[in-house]
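Per reviewer request, we include the raw input and output of the structure prediction for the construct analysed in the revised manuscript.
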Amino acid sequence: MRRILGLRWLTIALIMVGAMVNFLSRQTLSIAAPTVIADLHITTQQYGWITSAFQGGIMLQPAVGYIIDVMGVKSGFALFAFLWSVICMAHGLAGSWHVLAGLRGLLGFAEGAFSPGGLKVVSEWFPAKERGLAGGLYNVGPSLGSMLAPPLVAWAILNYSWQASFVIVGLISLAWVGLWLLFYRPVRQHPALSPEERDYIVSGQEDFLQASDTKPSILSILKRRNFWGIAIPRFLADPTWGMLSFWVPLYLTSVRHFDLKHIALYAWLPFLAADLGCIFGPSVVLFLQKRGLDLIDARRCAFTLGAFMMIGVAFTGVVKDPLMAVALISLAGFAHQTLSVTMITMATDLFPRNEVGTVAGMAGTCANFGILIFTLELGQRIDQIGYTPVFMLLAALDIVAAIVAWTVIRKPARA
C-alpha cells in the first residue's frame, strides 16, 4: 500500500499544480485576446508577432534546463516560477502590441522551466516502470491550467478588466512558489520519505541512468540520434498545441461567432480532453508492456495511436455545426496529449538523470521552434487561406512524426 500511496505521488501532485499555474498564466492572453485586440487595436498579423515572441522566448529552454540542472530543481524551478508570476502581472501594464510582445518574450523564457523541471522530478522520484504514469500525471497540469483559464479569465474581464485577469493569475502563480519552497525536497534529503520507499525508488531505476554529478555536455547530446528521435517528432507535433493554446479562441470568435461567454462555456473542453489524453497515453504504454512489448516500443505505439486519431481533426474546418467543431478540436487535445506525453517522457528512458533537464530543454526548443514557424505563418496567412487547411496540415504532421519516431530512435543497451 505504501508503494501505491507513497510520498512520490504527493510530489508529482505538487509539480502538476506548478504546471497548471504555468499554463494558466500563458493561456490568459489567448482567452483575453478578442478583448485585448479590440482595446489596443491589434491586427491579426500583429497578434501573430505577439504569440511568436512568446515562442522565441521559450526556445531558450535549453538555457533554462541547463540552469535547473546546475542549480538543482528546487531552487531553479522556484526562480523561474517567481519570474513568470511577476511578468504575467506586468502584462496588465501593456498599452501597445510592441510592449505586449516584449512581455510575452520574457514570459516564454521564464515558463520554459516547466518541461525540464518536471522531467527532472519524474526521473529522480520514480522507478522506470512508473515514470510513464508519473509523466502523464504531471502533464495533466498544463491541460488543467488551460481548462481553468477560459472561465477564470472571462470572469475577471466581465467583472473587472482584461488587465485584472493577468494580475489575478500572477498572484495565483506566486502562491504556488511558496508551496514549492515549503514542501519540495530531493529524494535523498526528504525527511518524511520512508527508507522502504526510498529504496523502492532507487532500486527501480536503470543502471545506465545512475549518472554522476558531472555537468551535461550539450555538444555530446546533439551528436546522439536518440535526441533527434525525440526532438524532430516534437517539432512536427507541437504546432497542434500552439493552435489550441493561441488560436482556438480567435477561431471560435471569428469563424464560429462565439462571444466571450460562449468561449468561457466551451473553450475549456479541448483541455479537458487533453487531460484524459495525458492519462490515456501512459495507460496504453502499460497495457502494451504487460503484453510483452518493451518500454520504448510501447511508447512509440502510443505515439502512433495518437497520430492516427489526429486524422479526424482534419475535418474541423468543414463541419457545419459549431459544437461539432468544438468536439473535433477536443479530439485534437486528446490525441495530441496521448502522443505528446509519451514522447516527452521518453527522455527519461534514454538519457541519464544529470542530462534530463538539458535534453528536455533542447527538445522543447525544437518543439517550440515548430510552434514559432506555425504561428508566424498563421498570423501572415490566416486571413487569406482560412483555418480549414491548417487543421488538415496538423493531422499530416503527426503522421510524419510517428514515422520519424520509429525510424530514428534506437533502444539503449542496458547495463
